[in-house]
Amino acid sequence: MNPVDPPDLPGRRLGDAGPRVSALGLGCLGLSGGYGPVSEADAVDVVRHAIDLGVTLVDTADFYGDGRNEELVGRAVAGRRDEVVIATRGGVRTARPGGPPSVVDGRPVSLRDACHASLRRLGVDHIDLYYLGRVDPAVPVADSVGALAELVQAGKVGHIGLSEATPDQVRAAHSVHPVSALETEYSLWERHAEAAILPTVRELGIGFVAHTPLGKGMLTGVLRYPGELGERDMRRNHPRFQGTNFARNRELVDELELMALARGLTPAQLALAWLLARGDDVVPIPGTRSRDRLAENLAALRVRLPADESRRLTELFTADRVAGPRLPVRR
Ligand SMILES: NC(=O)c1ccc[n+]([C@@H]2O[C@H](COP(=O)([O-])OP(=O)(O)OC[C@H]3O[C@@H](n4cnc5c(N)ncnc54)[C@H](OP(=O)(O)O)[C@@H]3O)[C@@H](O)[C@H]2O)c1
């Protein structure tokens, strides 16, 4: 179930027993809206182009675009199935079509159904890495992971992952079935994983997939004012993109931009290089709808960050300097 090593890109293994993947994956959330419009043809093209460039980890979820995201990933990988590790997740739903992922359902029966539906939409006979999208507080994690373990035994899933789980949940899950990867937000401006989550996965030999590595685009420097965000842009609901928070965060990005400029890099490249330097077990999955930005992001793999520069970046985006919580407040 492992693809061959990517032709050009350095690889990283997800955990002691997980699949080997390109050191940067492709996050597909933005390919069905969320950050603005994109045609299905362009979305499929970006995924195919990523595979051409040696990306072997493609990350989607069953609720993205109400299932359309998995369908387009399926179209993109058709005929090239062996070249990619497909990662998707179940256990989280939207309460209404197009709504935010607000319903967590980790019951074994729901996870089995969700996995089968993902297999159908992706048009594949197995999913390489299947994440429990969120741990359901109403269901023992052992029961949810037990259902995923059965899917592994049935050959429908290659490896099990967790998403945004706590250290205790990771331990409990890993004692039921080996967990190959934990996917959690991690970037210059979101470092909550460093305190206890990263040490836990390192101790257990679990890989770490860093989602939202570009801070939903903020760390790329392209956003200057909150007013630039379109009507349907999901960042409008995120506190860090609002009002004075935006302005304060933008000041940090200004400094990131200057540091990048001095090195002949883009802010996105510097932000990704910093993340890649956190450890060989960290695999960031930046998302983009653009071929050019994809190539730009992949070039971060060639950047070697001197220790003093890395430290400056670490100190620039400390939690007390970043304005606003990372998630919208749910009412
Ligand atoms: N497990 C979870 O709970 C969870 C949660 C969130 C996300 N994820 C996964 O993580 C992936 C990455 O997160 P994300 O896509 O939300 O955020 P991200 O990777 O931090 O940022 C994506 C944003 O950055 C822009 N961008 C990318 N490269 C750029 C560049 N070089 N220059 C300028 N702008 C650039 C994109 O715009 P364009 O498209 O216009 O280039 C998009 O608006 C998702 O796709 C998804 O697969 C998982």
TrEMBL record:
What organism does the UniProt record list as the source? Virgisporangium aurantiacum
User: Key word Protein biosynthesis present in the record?
Assistant: no
Which residue ranges does the record assign to the NADP-dependent oxidoreductase domain? Answer: 24-316
Pfam families on file: Aldo_ket_red
Write out the entry's keywords from A to Z. Oxidoreductase
Keyword Oxidoreductase recorded: yes
Question: What cellular component terms from Gene Ontology apply here?
Answer: cytoplasm
Molecular function terms from GO: oxidoreductase activity
So which domain of life are we looking at? Bacteria
Q: Which InterPro entries match?
A: Aldo-Keto_reductase, NAD(P)_OxRdtase_dom_sf, NADP_OxRdtase_dom
Question: What's the protein called, per UniProt?
Answer: Oxidoreductase
